[in-house]
Design a protein that fits this description.
The chain is an alpha+beta fold. It is about 40% helix and about 20% strand. It folds into 2 domains: about 25-180 and about 240-330, 2-Layer Sandwich (BirA Bifunctional Protein, domain 2), CATH 3.30.930.10; about 340-445, Anticodon-binding domain (Rossmann fold, 3-Layer(aba) Sandwich), CATH 3.40.50.800. The chain contains 15 helices and 18 strands. Strands 1-5-6-11-10-9-7-8 form an 8-stranded mixed β-sheet. It is elongated, with a radius of gyration of 28 Å. Bound molecules: histidyl-adenosine monophosphate. Histidyl-adenosine monophosphate binds next to β6, β10, β11 and α11.
Length: about 450
């Protein structure tokens, strides 16, 4: 029987739509951003936490609501053979952190608990510049505290991180609003629905659906059709209950006393459905306003919804790609560590010795570069030149026989013969006892 010829479509192997590789030449920038942010967050008492990339779908169904746009449209959900539950690639970090806070009994620790995270998130959105299906966030959360000063601290830290990576105060735009608590929201939604009822035919089809399911999100609509109506919508700030109004006033008062500028934006509701009271958005001036670089707010009811423990919380997250795209477009110079020494080896015995030497240097915290696949002096000197090192170590058959190694000063061109046995000491002397440890310069005395 003739076998039916199977038609195989050749699939081009590349990253899935909306996802990108982080290439080696980009990585120092990512690392730089992470190190700068980490320094600010750890100064303010945050500890790092990482939750799994996969969570049970139920976490987001409960945390955001079944009808939320995140759950309805944006989650990557799947079932494996063994799992009875639906699993999802985490679309955001706050619900997983709230889950971890409950799961590990962090509510028994002195409150509030301050946590930060850095990792990939996944949303099935229409990809475009600045909007990806896999993107990284740097997020930080203060859990177990309801004081307005914590909202101000979250905002202050957001600004400090942007300052630390080179953005000036005047280009950092902070947008704020309050969307109240469940009590005052009921009252506001009535008024909002009444306003939109008379304009329902003028809004986009998406907003006509939102009108029934989640009218607050109508204020978040980006469609051109809805903009002029949105601007006339009543402001939540006029309908806040006394408690929410006092809370927001105090947040603003802290920011005023810190000299932090902000804009009040009555249409700011943020895309996620767990927010209460303060909502926050960070932008960089002259950058596409729709692509906020960071966002967050207070979520006083999320932990209760997930675990029946009443613990208010506040936090925010930065979109790392969006920030780094701005940094790249501005050609902001970042400080990266460059090696100061290049090890050149000539001949098979020197190659073997070079492997041992590199390991000795690593143990002594002396950063030395080498390319062991190269054999001749010229090629290796060229590499050293490209790296811009100050010294080259040269090891050949003769040097091994004599138990010596050549140290060449790349600026003066002067060469010295040094004993191989004590080379670490000699190098440290010449580097002025500076030894690089974990990216920071420390003295080795
Ligand atoms: P979010 O506003 O959905 O909030 O995202 C925070 C930031 O992540 C955005 O401002 C944006 O810079 C970046 N981002 C979001 N979606 C994408 C995407 N598709 N592509 C590229 N970047 C994106 C949250 O996720 C909350 N969990 C933040 C939070 C923390 N709220 C309280 N605590």
């Amino acid at each position: 029987m003739a076998r039916k010829k199977e038609k195989t479509k050749k699939i081009r192997l590349q990253t899935p739509r909306g996802m990108k590789d982080i290439l080696p030449e980009e990585y120092p920038l990512w690392q730089w951003f992470f190190e700068k942010s980490k320094k600010v967050l750890e100064y303010y008492g945050f500890s790092r936490i990482e939750t799994p990339i996969i969570e049970k779908a139920e976490l987001f169904l409960r945390g955001h609501g079944k009808e939320s746009e995140l759950v309805q449209k944006e989650m990557y959900a799947f079932k494996t053979k063994e799992e009875a539950d639906w699993l999802v690639l985490r679309p955001e970090g706050t619900a997983p952190i709230a889950r971890a806070y409950l799961e590990h009994g962090f509510f028994n620790l002195p409150q509030p608990v301050k946590l930060y995270y850095f990792g990939p998130f996944f949303r099935h959105e229409r990809p475009q510049f600045g909007r990806y299906r896999q993107f990284y966030q740097l997020g930080y959360e203060i859990l177990g505290g309801d004081q307005p000063i914590l909202d101000a601290e979250v905002i202050l830290i957001g600004k400090a991180i942007l300052n630390e990576i080179g953005f000036k105060d005047k280009e950092i735009q902070i947008f704020l609003n309050s969307i109240g608590c469940s009590k005052c929201r009921k009252k506001y939604l009535k008024v909002l629905k009444k306003f939109y009822r008379s304009n329902i035919k003028k809004v986009c089809s998406e907003c006509q659906l939102r009108y029934k399911k989640n009218p607050l999100r109508m204020l978040d609509c980006k469609s051109v059709k809805c903009q002029s109506i949105k601007e006339k919508a009543p402001s939540f700030l006029d309908f806040l209950c006394e408690n929410c109004s006092n809370h927001f006033r105090q947040v603003l008062s802290y920011l005023d006393s810190l000299g932090i500028d902000y804009y009040l934006d009555k249409t700011l509701v943020r895309g996620l459905d767990y927010y209460t009271k303060t909502v926050i958005e960070f932008n960089i001036e002259a950058h596409n306003k729709e692509l906020s670089v960071g966002g967050g707010g207070r979520y006083d009811e999320l932990i209760k919804v997930l675990g029946r423990i009443d613990k208010p919380a506040v936090g925010m997250a930065f979109g790392v790609e969006r920030i780094l795209e701005i940094i790249k477009s501005r050609k902001i110079k970042i400080e990266t560590e460059k090696p100061e020494i290049f090890l050149i080896q000539i001949g098979p015995r020197a190659k073997e010795e070079a492997l041992k030497l590199l390991e000795r240097f690593r143990k002594s915290n002396i950063p030395v570069s080498a390319n062991l696949s190269k054999d001749n002096l010229k090629d290796q000197l060229k590499l050293a030149d490209r790296l811009g090192v100050n010294y080259c170590l040269i090891l050949g058959q003769q040097e091994i026989n004599d138990g010596m190694i050549i140290l060449k000063d790349m600026i003066s061109g002067i060469q010295e013969n040094l004993p191989l046995e004590r080379i670490e000491e000699e190098i440290k002397k010449r580097l002025g006892a500076r030894v690089i440890v974990k990216g920071s310069e420390t003295s080795n005395n």
